[in-house]
Amino acid sequence: MIKDITIGQFFPGDSYIHKLDPRAKIIITFVFIVALFLCKNYFSLGLLFFISIAAIVVSKISLRVILKGLKMIVVLVVFTGVLQILYNDEGTVLWKPFQQLDFAVTSGGIISSVFIIIRIVSLILFSSLLTYTTSPTMLTDAIERLLSPLKLFKINVSSLAMMMTIALRFIPTLIEEIDIIMSAQKARGADLETGTLVQRAKALVPVFIPLIVNSFRRAYELAFAMECRCYTGDNKRTRMKEMKLALRDYLAFAFVAVTVAAVIATGFFDISSFFIFERVI
Amino acid sequence: MVILEVKNVSYGYSHGTPFEIAALRDVSFSVEKGELVGIIGHTGSGKSTLIKMLNSLLKPESGQVLLNGKDINTDKASIKEARSKVGLCFQYPEYQLFEETCAKDIAFGPKNMGLSEDEVRQRVLRAAEFVGFNKELLNRSPFDLSGGQKRRCAIAGVMAMFPEILVLDEPVAGLDPAGRRELMSMIENYRKATGATVMIVSHSMDDIARIADRILVMNKGSLAESGTVKEIFSKTDKLIEMGLSVPAATSLINKLRLKLPELDADVYTTEDAARILAAFYKRRKEQ
Ligand SMILES: Nc1ncnc2c1ncn2[C@@H]1O[C@H](COP(=O)(O)OP(=O)(O)OP(=O)(O)O)[C@@H](O)[C@H]1O
Ligand SMILES: [Mg+2]
C-alpha cells in the first residue's frame, strides 16, 4: 500500500542521534556521503558501512523500519549491481554463458558490483537516518540556518525554508488523501490495479483530478490562514527555539573528522595488498 | 434473512512503527436484509475502518466478512461483486468528485459496473431524483456547486449503483439543520423505494434515534453494544463513559423524571418527547 513508504518519515525518540543538533546532523550526513564517494577500497567503504550500521543501532530505530526503507530501492540496487557485472571485464573469468558473445562474469565485475551495492546501501542508510531522527520542522529550520549566508545575495532564505517546511508537512497529508480518494473511487467500482499501462494511466484520472483540486483549495486556505496570523515572509522573524551546538555535537564532529581522515589516508596508501584484489574501482 | 455477517474481524494500522494501532478488535455482528443500522462511537473508535471492511477496501487481518453467506475476500470476482453490492459513501465524499458535469460523475459507478449506456442514463436520472437534482444541476460542473449540493451529488454517485447495502459515513456532517433533515429524508426515501439495507455512521444521536432499527456502538476498536434504539439509549451512563450521549429528547425527559417520575421513560425523539409532555399537561389540567 502507498502508506508503507517510510523514507523521509520521522520516528521520534531520545537517542544520542536524535539529540544531536540538526545542523550538525545535516553537515555530518553530507560529509559521510561525500566520503562514500571518496572510498577507493573495501577498507574505507567497510569502515563507513560499519559506522552507518552502528549509528542505526545507537538511534534505536527498529530494524523493520530500516529494511522497509531499503525495500524501496531493491530494484535500483539490483539494476546497478547487474550493470557492473556486465560492464566490468577485469580479473579472471568465472562464467561465460554465451560462447559467441563477448560477455563474461568476471571476478573484477563481482567485486566492483558488491562495492557499488554497499555504497548505495550506505548512502541510503545515512540519508534516511537523518530524516528518521530529525523532525521535518527541525530539518528545515536547520537548512534555513545553514543557507543563511545566501542572504548576502538577496535570496529570501526564510521564504525558501517556509516553502520547504510546507512541502514536507503536506507529503503525509497528500499520501493520506490519495489513499482516501483511491478508496472512494474503488468503492465506485474503479479498477486501478489491472489492465494495460494506458488503461491504468487513464484509471488514475479520477484520482488525480480531485487531488489537484483539493491541493489548490488547501493552498488557498493555508495562505489565508498564514496571512491572518500576520505572516509576511520577511527575514526578520525571531525563533522560539534557538539552536545551540552542545558538547555532543563537537564530539560527533571530531569523530567524523577522524573517520574521514582515515578514509582519505587509506586512499593514499596502497593497502589493497591486504585484500587480495587490485584496485577495485 | 441475514445479508451481511462480520465475523471476528480484527485490523491494525502502521504495523512495525511506533504509531502502530489496533483499529478493530474482534468485531462481530450481522445485518438483516432491509434493516437500517446506525453506527455510533467516539472519534477514532474505528467506525470508518469498520465500514471499509464491508466492501474489501481493507482486508481483515483475521476474521471474515460474509455477504449473502459468501466470504467477500475469496478472490477477485468476489471482491468485485462486493464493490457493486455494497455501496460505500465516505466521510466528506464531495472531495472525490472529478468529472466535468454532475451527470457524468454520478454515472462513474454504474459505468464501472459494465452496464449499458441506456441503463446507466436511467440510473443517473433515478439517483438524481432521490437527491433532488434537476436537469440544470446535472449539467453543472460539480466544482461549481455549494458544499451541500456537492455532498448530494457524491451520494447520488453511490446510489446510482443501486447497491443492496448502502453504507454512509457521516453523510450529514457539516451541513445546516435544514440540509441535514433534507438529506436524511432523501436517504429514507431511497430506502423505501429500493428496499435496500442501509448503514449510517453518525455523530448525531438524534438522527440515529429517529431512523435506525438497530444501533452498533463502537468503542476503542471493539463493538461495545448492539441493540435497538431503546436498548442502547436507555444506558445513559455507559454511553457517556464512552464519550457519547443520548438524544437531546431522552436527556430532557431523564432530567424531568428526577422531579416527575410518572413520566414515560422510553423517549428518544423530539416528536415523542413533545407527545408525552403534551399528554402529561393534559392530565395535569384535568386533575
Ligand atoms: N490510514 C490510517 N493510518 C493509520 N492509522 C489510522 C488510519 N486510519 C485510521 N487510523 C487510526 O485508526 C483508528 C480508527 O480510525 P477510524 O477512522 O476508523 O475512526 P472513526 O471511528 O471513523 O473516527 P471519526 O469519528 O473521527 O471519523 C484511529 O485511532 C485512527 O487514528
Ligand atoms: Mg470516521
What does this structure look like?
The complex is a heterodimer of chains A (281) and B (287). By secondary structure, chain A is an all-alpha fold. Chain A folds into 2 domains: 2-155 and 242-280, no CATH class; 157-232, no CATH class. Chain A contains 11 helices and 2 strands, in the order αααααββαααααα. The model of chain A is unreliable at 273-281 (pLDDT under 50). Chain B has helices spanning 47-53, 76-85, 102-112, 117-130, 135-138, 147-159, 177-194, 205-211, 229-233, 236-241, 248-259, 270-286; strands spanning 2-13, 21-32, 36-41, 62-67, 70-71, 86-89, 165-169, 197-201, 214-219, 222-227. With 287 residues, chain B is α/β, with parallel strands linked by helices. Chain B has a single domain, classed as P-loop containing nucleotide triphosphate hydrolases (Rossmann fold, 3-Layer(aba) Sandwich). The N and C termini of chain B lie far apart (50 Å). In chain B, the strands form 2 sheets. Chain B has a 6-stranded mixed beta sheet, with helices on both faces. A 4-stranded antiparallel beta sheet of chain B has the order 2-1-4-5, with helices on one face. In chain B, helix 3 (102-112) packs across helix 4, helix 3 (102-112) runs parallel beside helix 6 (147-159) and helix 4 crosses helix 6. Chain B is built from 12 helices and 10 strands. Helices cover 43% and strands 22% of the residues of chain B. Residues 47-48, 91, 169 of chain B line the site of magnesium ion. Magnesium ion (MG) is lined by residues 47-48, 91, 169 of chain B.
